[in-house]
Amino acid sequence: MTEAILLERERGLLTLRLNRPDKKNALTRAMYSRLAEALKQANGDPEINAVLISGSAECFTAGNDIADFIEQPPSDLDSPVFHFMLNLLECRKPVIAAVAGAAVGIGTTMLLHCDLVYVSRDARLRMPFVNLGLCPEFGSSLILPRLLGQAKAAELLLLGEGFSGEQAAQWGIATQALNSGAAALSKAREMALRFDELPAEAVHISKQLMRAPDRDLLRKVIEEEGALFTQRLRSPEAVAALIGFVQRH
Ligand code: COA
To answer: What is the pTM of this model?
Structure first.
């Protein structure tokens, strides 16, 4: 069976490539576990200077696997999705994301925890949590109102409106928008490899300084959101919306 997460090593760069094209790279419990484990290892490996998370030039990820949400919903903070979130939050090494095509749900919220984000202009980002009877996760209820203001954040989180890679770059969710998916992947790789040329300790200390002030607060918010999110998954609103998606496919 092909691996749904491909680990690729190039000099000091570890790339975690989402590779489940038939399901638009939707993330399963097993994929979260693999991502969490790889991030943890990269964090402790002195040979790794940066981590790149990417999908293909056509699709980043359709977010959490909806069949998994129905069959094996996360029940507490010991679930694979939360291990992934906390390992990304705690990663001392720079994390770079390369985004093309769809980036839905956690496919968008994980970008808020990456250090550099390269997107294709026509990438389609969306956080349809409320639309699915759910609520925001991965600190998005804290970060997005701060970044965009309440009024814009409400459009994205309460209405679940989608936006383009170009808008993501204008709003500071992404570092730069590129003309194609292939260009976004190539730029992300080029910039991620730059960390091989920089003094590693200075990079770690600088990232720590940038992230530390909010880290405890973010962990608390992620836990609060997570408790509500796992409850919502069992609500009649969410069950109807999730089953509706499966039945349409
Ligand atoms: N979980 C499980 N399977 C998913 C999925 C998800 N989140 N997203 C897509 N898929 C599957 C579809 O069921 C379909 O499988 P099938 O060919 O076996 O029927 C396949 O991936 C292709 O999806 P499709 O919807 O036909 O592709 P598209 O290009 O028209 O649209 C998306 C792509 C990502 C916009 C659309 O699939 C989508 O909205 N997915 C749901 C996203 C979502 O709500 N995620 C959860 C957020 S909390």
So the answer is: 0.98
How far apart are the CA of 23 and the centre of ligand 1, in A? 6
* Cα 228 from Cα 163, distance rounded (Å): 25
Domains assigned to the chain: 5-181 (3.90.226.10)
Structure tokens that stand for 52 in this block: 């790149």
Beta bridge partners of 245: none
Read off the tokens for 21: 């094209």
Q: What is the pLDDT of residues 46-74, one digit of tens each?
A: 999 999 999 999 999 999 999 999 999 99
User: How far is the C-alpha of 128 from the C-alpha of 132, rounded, in Å?
Assistant: 6
pLDDT in tens, 162-218: 999 999 999 999 999 999 999 999 999 999 999 999 999 999 999 999 999 999 999
Q: Whose CA is nearest to atom 42 of ligand 1?
A: 62
Q: How many Å apart are CA 13 and CA 42, to the nearest integer?
A: 9
Which residue has the least CA distance to atom 15 on ligand 1?
Answer: 23
Task: State the distance from the centre of ligand 1 to the C-alpha of 106, rounded, in angstroms.
Answer: 14
**Residue 66 beta carbon below 6 angstroms from any ligand 1 atom:** yes
Contact status, residue 12 vs residue 50, Cβ threshold 8 Å: yes
Phi and psi angles of residue 111, each rounded to the nearest 5 degrees, phi first: -65, -25
Distance, in Å, from the CA atom of 22 to the CA atom of 200, rounded to the nearest integer, reads: 38
